[in-house]
């Protein structure tokens, strides 16, 4: 029963190869994919106590989320100006495997935090 439903479109920036693979999976494999993706997110997660400020930086706030930790920090511009350290800026930090088998902390700048006085 029920009306035929159009297949949902993948997110705009989603890799096409992944989307077409997922579209061909049966229900069992799709459910397993969700579980596996959650495990990968847990694996990419970096606990807050593994994140350290670089010299001159000042960590204001850290919040752990599934797959990443949000870090709010002030940072120097490198020129040691009167306003240093600048910010605060919001970053999302996750664990990123490197081709050589090692891993890196991957910092993604989200933007300046606007609510606080700087
Ligand atoms: Zn500065």
Question: What would your notes on this structure say?
Answer:
This protein has 118 residues and is of the alpha+beta class. The protein has two domains: 11-44; 48-112, no CATH class. Helices cover 22% and strands 32% of the residues. The chain contains two helices and four strands. Strands 1-2-3-4 form a four-stranded antiparallel sheet. A hairpin with a 5-residue loop joins strand 3 and strand 4 (103-112). The longest helix has 18 residues, at 27-44. It is elongated, with a radius of gyration of 20 Å. The mean pLDDT is 91. Zinc ion (ZN) binds at residues 76-77, 79, 81, 83-84, 86. The site of zinc ion has 7 residues, from loops.
Structure summary, number of beta strands = 4
Total DSSP helices? 2
What is the percent of helical residues?
10-25%
What do the pLDDT scores average to? Answer: 91
Radius of gyration: 20 Å
Order of helices and strands: HHEEEE
Biggest β-sheet strands, sense, barrel: 4 strands, antiparallel
Q: Into how many domains do the coordinates divide?
A: 2
Q: Strands across the major sheet, in which order?
A: 1-2-3-4
Separation, N- and C-terminal Cα atoms: 59 Å
What portion of the residues fall into strands of 2 or more residues?
A: 25-35%
Task: Specify the overall morphology.
Answer: elongated
How does the helix and strand content classify structurally? Answer: alpha+beta
Poorly predicted ranges: none
Heterogens: zinc ion
